[in-house]
Write the structure tokens for this entry.
Amino acid sequence: MQEEKTNSMPWRYFRQNVFFTCVRASALVITLALGGIIFYIIYNGISVISWDFITQPPTDAMTKGGIMPAILGTIYLTLGAIAIGLPLGIASAIYLTEYAREGRVIRLIRIGINCLAGVPSVVFGLFGLGIFVIFLKFGSSILSGSLTLGFLILPTIIGASEEALKSVPQTFREASLSLGVSKWQTIYRIVLPNALPGILTGSILGIGRAAGETAPIMFTAAAFFTAKLPSSIFDEVMALPYHIYVLATAGTNIEATRPIQYGTVLVLVAVVLGIDLIAIIIRGYMRRNKRW
Amino acid sequence: MSTDMIKINNVNFYYGPTRALTDISMTFGKNKVTALIGPSGCGKSTLLRLLNRMNDLIDGTRVEGEIIFEDRNIYAPDVDPVEIRRKIGMVFQKPNPFPKTIYNNISYGPKLTGMGAQNMDDLVEQSLRQAVLWDEVKDILNKSAMNLSGGQQQRLCIARALAMKPDVLLMDEPTSALDPISTAKIEELIEELKKNYTIIIVTHNMQQAARISDETAFFYMGNLIEYNKTEKIFTNPDVKQTEDYITGRFG
């Protein structure tokens, strides 16, 4: 018996080493994949990046020139999606966590939200086409696209907001209510300010998704080509993801525009990171003095 | 009976199907300190939270009977619990200041409930003085309350409750999270406050109940076993169970 035990020690170390190696390898693969993608994009796209590329509209049937209308369009659509998704999502989360009493109705709503999160984005696109573009007659426009993207990111924002609201200590609510402050004032003055940094953190994911999605805006907002900049929310816009799709699949000279395609991808990544950065800065500002 | 502040008549309280309080009837005297004692789970905190309708926040609870405050039943359908809580303040077991400045912790309640007519600076100073905290914080009013020590935070919470100028102050084991020196300060403070306020305090600390209260109520398993002058309870209780509890024979 004694001998068997000592004999098994090297074997146990061996298994441990195998396991650690696997875990380390997984982490390495992910890092390499991410690094590889970023390197590949930069390597192929950096050559076309110039001041003109980001400030000029496309020319020569989109084989030359810049992508400025698409950058602007993506920024408009993303801001529009935030403007619609964030208030609606936060309001829903407040209802679910602060007002609703647990029961069958709430369970159904939660299931609904989870299902919404699993709906393919092209379905959102068709939904937006049917409701906003055709039924409400908004046409293919910033408004229709923002609404569609806003609904697309709702589950993410509701989920993040619910988590953030739940993490505000119950004792804060009790303290406020015990002073004879109403429930709404308690939520507005105590719960929400303390939850906002967390809400933003979670919403960043949704924001990135809104900027990067192609399918939802294909039928609802994105123009194949327009050199004209939008003058109202009822105008069609170019958008980076759709522009990439167009150049890579339906352009007039797909092979010749490869560098432009990669350049556009590079800009899209930069825009998403830029919007995230703004959210992170706002969050950092709100977090000051907020700790418990 | 103008010396009665709150009168409880035949109150039963349920968490879902479980009865937590059985047929409680008692009165709390004006400008008196009443201690509620008893083993954990005996219903004393539940009773305290009934007095300013804090149990409303818990789903699936039910109250029977009536609690009379200012000539009306606070559980009558037309009574707004928010209104009741303005007059019956509460201090909790763990200090729970808001993550705001010291000044804003105090001004929060009065500002939001429309008491801002008077000078807010004066109200803040007066409340902090009442809670014997003013001298320690007068130079750091704009600093976060989270930087204060536990004992200071608890006195801040008392000051915050006092700023609403309540008639009654409910205290739910206010010193159980504090060290002995902070505890002594809070006890001195309670002694001082009872001149102007009616205080009802839940405590697990028998000596504390004996030191600071005028009346003591002993609860066991949701029943009010004995309610008497504190002196009587701790020297010559009427009920055997009370004696067993305070002498440490059970609980």
